[in-house]
């Protein structure tokens, strides 16, 4: 390290307040920033959102009152396309897992060649959940209670003492299917058999992923974190970069959160949004303190890239070009994936998407993460955040074995599990706010128990609220 800066001061609220001021006169959003810098703008980033959501912030009662839980189950979790698992979780025919969302549970089965099926995870005899928290495999789904057995398409295939169940035939007593489809290596379900196809629910998103196929990725790290917060406020914390200033101060020298671009699309069927934040561009709050060279050194350290030779990184453009080149080399050396023709933006920046109700795929290699949120049980106070690190593989190459999912309980942190590495560290920073947000909602004066949302930096939360209000059929 040739340069140093005291990063801790950015986590000091007094310093931030006194030294940095409160607003910027000139803070271009991502694509404008790239254009000014004379850098290639990827077509996907230049394709801007077409939807301006209404400004109707959702009152806190919807996050707290248990009476809304059954309503959400009926109107959202039983009606919307949602990610149940990744294909690599059930790589072989006969493999299956449970997907739990609130009190609901679904059985996801690799049921044939390139075919996945999903069912209500409930035995037709006396209801026992067929698949529990452990993945299972085999050519029959056999209930552990009395051994009723179903084939991989859910057809009732065997009933012990069948003579005592004269009406229990496959036509009437097979597993009850739900809609199941895949996109980008993700298995989606929709319990509503009348709902439109998955493609409708994803809107413009797949067209932006044509050059970043999520199916050509494998799960390199996998975390499931239980959190004491409502699922909605849990995911809202990831819809904006506005919290970086005090929540992720150590990231400010290398990620320019103040240049974040936000985009929303909504055609009435799909509610999707995106944020893009540049890397190797010091955040607006610290731009006078951090040289491009320092940003580059920190970036290389964080991402395990070779330390830049002396003299490299005098300008932001040079630092970004070096980091992108080394990122492409890293992927080529690791798994033979050739990214040599990719834009700097693709290789180093953060491009995060969101599809209502609760899925976050990321685009590019800057942060190739994947999040999914689900409510836990019948409680409005608990949810599960699932995080994966999806690394690229060559088209059609076999995926490396799935790592064990690190299950992190309410009271535990990512740093309790060293194998979660950088992902766990950043997750911990976000988790510091979670329980306190939920408690703060309960502590709010009922006369003002709703948020105020920024016009651009929090526009995706406005959009999320708009989609939620519509799905729940609420009049505010
Ligand atoms: S509950 Fe499944 S076989 Fe009895
Ligand atoms: Fe965060």
Model description:
The mean pLDDT is 94. The strands form three sheets. Strands 11-12-13-14-15-16-10-17 form an eight-stranded mixed beta sheet. A six-stranded antiparallel beta sheet has the order 1-9-8-4-3-2, with no helix packed on it. A three-stranded antiparallel beta sheet has the order 5-6-7. It has two domains: 7-63 and 204-472, Alpha-Beta Complex (Naphthalene 1,2-dioxygenase Alpha Subunit, Chain A, domain 1), CATH 3.90.380.10; 82-194, Rieske Iron-sulfur Protein, CATH 2.102.10. The longest helix is centred in the C-terminal third of the chain and has 23 residues, at 421-443. Helices cover 27% and strands 21% of the residues. It is α+β, with helices and mostly antiparallel strands and 476 residues long. Helix 11 (292-303) packs parallel to helix 12. It binds FE2/S2 (inorganic) cluster (FES) and fe (ii) ion. The site of fe (ii) ion has 4 residues, from loops. FE2/S2 (inorganic) cluster binds at residues 123, 125-128, 143, 145-148.
Key words describing this protein structure:
binds FE2/S2 (inorganic) cluster; 6-stranded antiparallel β-sheet; 27% helix; 2 iron, 2 sulfur cluster binding; binds fe (ii) ion; Naphthalene 1,2-dioxygenase Alpha Subunit, Chain A, domain 1; alpha+beta; 15 helices; dioxygenase activity; 476 residues; 8-stranded mixed β-sheet
Strand order of the largest sheet: 11-12-13-14-15-16-10-17
In total, the number of strands is 17
Kindly, what is the distance between the CA atoms of the first and last residues, rounded to a whole number of angstroms? 54 Å
CATH superfamily of the largest domain: Naphthalene 1,2-dioxygenase Alpha Subunit, Chain A, domain 1
């Amino acid at each position: 390290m040739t340069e140093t800066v005291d990063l801790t001061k950015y986590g000091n609220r007094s310093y931030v307040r006194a030294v940095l001021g409160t607003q910027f006169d000139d803070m271009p959003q991502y694509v404008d920033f790239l254009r000014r810098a004379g850098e290639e703008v990827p077509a996907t980033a230049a394709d801007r959102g077409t939807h301006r959501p209404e400004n109707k912030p959702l009152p806190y009662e919807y996050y707290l009152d248990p009476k809304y839980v059954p309503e959400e189950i009926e109107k959202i979790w039983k009606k919307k396309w949602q990610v149940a698992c990744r294909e690599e979780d059930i790589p072989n025919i006969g493999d299956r897992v449970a997907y739990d969302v609130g009190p609901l549970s679904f059985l996801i089965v690799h049921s044939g060649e390139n075919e996945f099926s999903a069912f209500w995870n409930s035995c037709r005899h006396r209801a026992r959940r067929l698949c529990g928290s452990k993945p299972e495999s085999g050519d029959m789904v056999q209930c552990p209670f009395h051994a009723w057995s179903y084939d991989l398409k859910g057809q009732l295939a065997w009933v012990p003492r069948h003579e005592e169940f004269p009406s229990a035939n496959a036509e009437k007593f097979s597993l009850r299917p739900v809609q199941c489809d895949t996109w980008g290596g993700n298995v989606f379900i929709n319990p509503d058999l009348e709902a439109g196809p998955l493609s409708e629910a994803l809107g413009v998103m797949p067209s932006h992923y044509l050059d970043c196929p999520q199916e050509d990725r494998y799960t390199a790290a996998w975390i499931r974190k239980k959190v004491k917060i409502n699922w909605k406020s849990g995911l809202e914390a990831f819809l904006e970069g506005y919290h970086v200033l005090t929540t992720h101060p150590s990231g400010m020298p290398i990620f320019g959160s103040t240049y974040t671009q936000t985009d929303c699309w909504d055609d009435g069927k799909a509610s999707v949004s995106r944020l893009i934040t540049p890397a190797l561009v010091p955040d607006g709050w610290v731009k006078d303190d951090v040289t491009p060279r320092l940003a580059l050194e920190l970036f290389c350290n964080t991402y395990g890239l070779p330390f830049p030779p002396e003299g490299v990184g005098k300008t932001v453009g040079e630092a970004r070009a070096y980091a992108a080149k080394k990122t492409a080399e890293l992927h080529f050396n690791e798994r033979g994936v050739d990214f040599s023709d990719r834009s700097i933006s693709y290789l180093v920046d953060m491009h995060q998407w969101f599809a209502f109700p609760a899925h976050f795929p990321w685009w590019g290699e800057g942060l190739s993460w994947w999040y999914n949120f689900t409510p836990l049980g019948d409680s409005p106070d608990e949810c599960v955040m699932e995080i994966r690190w999806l690394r690229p593989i060559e088209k059609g190459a076999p995926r490396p074995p799935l790592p064990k999912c690190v299950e992190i309980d309410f009271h535990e942190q990512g740093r309790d599990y060293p194998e979660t590495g950088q992902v766990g560290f950043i997750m911990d920073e976000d988790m510091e706010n979670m329980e306190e947000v939920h408690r703060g909602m309960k502590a709010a004066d009922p006369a003002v128990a709703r948020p105020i949302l920024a016009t651009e930096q929090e526009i995706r939360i406005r959009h999320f609220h708009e989609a939620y209000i519509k799905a729940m059929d609420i009049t505010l």
